[in-house]
Amino acid sequence: MERKAKVELFEQIRREYEFGDGTVLGIARKLGVHRRMVRQALANAAPPERQQWERKRPIMAPLMPFIDAVLEADRNAPRKQRHTAHRIWQRIVTEQPERKVWEVTIRQYVRERKRELGWSARATCVPQSYAPGQEGQVDWYEAWAELNGERIKLQVFAMRSMASGAAFHRAYHRATQQAFLEAHEHAFQYFEGVFRILRYDNLKAAVKKILRGFRREETVRFIAFRSHWRFQSEFCTPEEPHEKGGIEGEAGYFRRNHWVPVPKARDVADLNAPDRSLVRRAVIAAHAPRSSMLPPAAGVRCQ
Prior knowledge:
3 domains; 37% helix; six-stranded mixed beta sheet; Nucleotidyltransferase, domain 5; alpha/beta
């Protein structure tokens, strides 16, 4: 019985005793409750708190200090680079292989602890369907890394295939136009082709001025770059990030799973090195076959 319903029942018992039957046995029979409950209601208008028995957790008990330490360390970590329950479970499997625990058990405990800490988030995703090589989405996002012992905020370029979910990530100190175009070329090499359509936010590297509707005044350098690689560009409505939800979700997924804990490297070049499999690591899925994508343009690369 919920506490509110029990409080209302206690009130009914007390009224019945004072203005009605007036006996413990009579009230118990009339309301269908035990005589012990009637005596409790007459003694105190507030029902006694239900005793909570502490449940033993033989599997989780040794892991609780580790999980609590991770969540406590996340207080000082960038908000978007905190551990998820899945990432904590992965670390337990890797760092404490002798502890056999199901991921759902870790999820339940982390959910409880985050609720106690006041951290709660809920995401809703809508599945979509794309033909192979049809569309890619591009965006920048921020992430932190320790370069040569110093924590630095980086700008990370990301391009995601909407058909397969495969993605390319590359970090830079600043999101300049030169970095923007250079990262495209690295992404085309990674995907072994060029998407027919690339969808963007209204990035300054590509958009000089937002006009009425979907019209944009694009930068001359971006127009030349697009002409060279022979793809079409589409831009989202300002302040409507859901129009490119694929890359928005990819940035969050990648940051939570591959930038946690905060990575360490000598410099950005070391962080972007292919053998580190950190920034270039993508969702495990085959990207669009080369036959369905535009082949790389021949001739001199755009600078």
